[in-house]
Design a protein that fits this description.
A hairpin with a 2-residue loop joins strand 1 and strand 2. The protein has 2 domains: 112 residues, no CATH class; 110 residues, no CATH class. With 241 residues, the chain is mainly α.
């Protein structure tokens, strides 16, 4: 969705493929460190009726002083609109509170709207077809062992909440079709490809994640895939006001 503020054009996400992994990582970092406790209590509530009750009891003073500035920060991350333009200062009037609120929840809903498409194990990225492994990171040859160890280290970090490692997980798993493992350039290649992965949109990130979820039951308990599934469920919610 295109919006114009002070003559400047900005884009607000309306679909999951409007949000890149790079943007999502910045969002989760802010969510982890700056989401108001009052909002966290609401969004983590799993019972819909209790969620609505908690939201209805939120004091307007708290909503204006804590939630709206947080909403503005997230909107700024996904759209590029400066926070001071959204909230107002001596040079800017600021956007209406309900507009900031609406843009935030529009973004949350965009992130949550994803339909997994079974059977997709190849993706067109940077002019090439990239594929997922036919087997789940088995540790037989030296190359397979090195790749699996790298994957496990990165995925453990993401499962612990460190989403900055998600591009590395994908960089290890996805390879251009026909490529063979080369231990002499492996680390450099992963670093280079992680930057490519940061630019991918979240629909592709989700697709890769849930592909792995279906291939390995163990991932459900202790990996980034299970974390991602819970995150999706958390974001499927109603606005707080």
């Amino acid at each position: 969705m295109q919006v114009k503020i002070n003559g400047q054009q900005y884009s607000l996400p309306t679909r999951v493929n409007d949000i890149t992994l790079r943007t999502f990582i910045r969002w989760t970092e802010v969510e982890e460190t700056e989401m108001p406790d009052e909002l966290r209590v609401i969004v983590t509530e799993t019972d819909p009726e209790k969620k609505r009750l908690k939201a209805s009891r939120l004091p307007k003073r708290t909503y204006v002083r804590k939630l709206v500035p947080y909403y503005a920060k997230v909107v700024s991350i996904v759209s590029g609109i400066p926070e001071n333009v959204l909230l107002g200062d001596k040079q800017h009037e600021g956007a209406p509170v309900m507009v900031i609120d609406g843009w935030y929840w529009q973004t949350v809903n965009a992130l949550a709207e994803f339909d997994y498409k079974p059977g997709i194990d190849r993706f067109h990225i940077s002019g090439k077809w990239w594929t997922l492994p036919a087997k789940h990171m088995e540790k037989s040859t030296f190359g397979e062992f090195a790749e699996a160890a790298q994957y496990e280290d990165y995925s453990a970090d993401v499962a612990g909440g460190n989403w900055t490692k998600m591009p590395y997980v994908m960089a290890v798993l996805l390879k251009p079709e026909g490529e063979k493992f080369d231990p002499y350039v492996f680390d450099d290649v992963v670093e280079e490809r992680a930057e490519i992965m940061r630019g991918l949109t979240m629909d592709m990130v989700y697709q890769v994640s849930f592909f792995l979820l279906r291939r390995n039951e163990n991932l459900r308990q202790d990996s980034l895939i299970y974390t991602l599934a819970r995150l999706l469920a958390t974001y499927k919610q109603a606005p707080t006001n």
